[in-house]
Amino acid sequence: MKKIMVTGALGQIGSELVAKLRKEYGSDNILATDIRHISSSVTENGPFDILDVTDGEKMHQLAKNFQADTMIHMAALLSATAEAKPLLAWNLNMGGLVNALEASRELGMQFFTPSSIGAFGPSTPKKNTPQDTLQRPTTMYGVNKVSGELLCDYYFQKFGVDTRGVRFPGLISNETLPGGGTTDYAVDIYYKALEDGAYTSYIAKGTYMDMMYMPDALQAIVDLMEADPTKLIHRNAFNVTAMSFEPEQIAASIRKEIPSFKMNYEVDPVRQAIADSWPDNIDATAAKEEWGFTYKYDLDAMTKDMLLTLKNKKT
Ligand code: AKB
């Protein structure tokens, strides 16, 4: 049975991932860690410890005491926050990552961390963005993500650490809200559709970005971690995506459930510039071929499930 330590466990992905891992591998086998304690299923339903990921010694000690054989490193600042606080982003995103890789090297743990579509930049081919292509991002988040991809490759090649990872698109979930991302509009819109019947988008009409529903993202992590290593040519930073849409298309999808839904625009120049530097849609062929990546939810299936789940939570 696996013994998995998760950092950033109270974040958007972490909180749902911990629940899924506890279901798959048993609650006692998943150690959730985060920089803060918020009373929730993550902190109450299994082992939990406070961890600032820039504290490498504590990270090593927690993993060792727990006898973890796997590290899933999720703690990071997202793109818009990283742009507002670039130095903090460098220190947290890169410092946390190198500590997690070091602990994995020293304790022989398998390792996962997500990269992002943010690892691409304006000179990357925008349509059907290949797995292996030009990566010259113009955001601090992107710089962190490309550096992180290279660092994970390095730890595999140099030290034999079993590093694995995907480039996540925007993730949409109905549990924990994202914070400080560029793709967050595609989550907020569902909450506002139910509360106000209207949404004011900070992303302009016609701006395409890749997205994925959280259950598909979590399954991708489990599938990649369990994949046969001999089949993995890339290991880290696999392109994965389930859909690509622009704001008018998600609004149209919501109108199939809430016909009176209204969409307005007040574009935020900072987040728009980040979105404009990212691909319209990426090619996930390598992930499909090397470890059988697949997904269940397209835009309309996700919209139906999001609205129904959020509505049920309110009542
Ligand atoms: C963000 O918008 O920063 C993230 C991402 C695509 O990595 N959701």
In short:
The protein is an alpha/beta fold and 315 residues long.
Unreliable stretches (pLDDT < 50, length at least 5) are none
Number of helices: 12
Percent strand equals 15-25%
- Ligands, ions, cofactors: 2-amino-3-ketobutyric acid
Our measurement of the CA-to-CA distance between the termini, rounded to an integer number of angstroms, reads: 38 Å
What percent of residues adopt helix (DSSP H or I)?
40-55%
If strands are numbered along the chain, what order do they take across the biggest sheet?
Answer: 3-2-1-4-5-8
Shape summary: globular
Assembly state: single chain
Reported for the largest beta sheet, the result is:
6 strands, parallel
Order of helices and strands: EHEHEHEHHEEEHEEEHEEHEEHEHEHH
Mean pLDDT: 97
Work out the number of β strands.
16
Question: Can you tell me about this structure?
Answer:
- This is L-threonine 3-dehydrogenase.
- Belongs to the NAD(P)-dependent epimerase/dehydratase family.
- It holds the Pfam family Epimerase.
- There is one protein chain.
- This protein is 45% helix and 17% strand.
- The chain is built from 12 helices and 16 strands.
- Strand 1, helix 1 and strand 2 form a beta-alpha-beta unit.
- Helix 3 packs parallel to helix 5, helix 5 runs parallel beside helix 6 and helix 7 runs parallel beside helix 9.
- The model has no long low-confidence stretch (mean pLDDT 97).
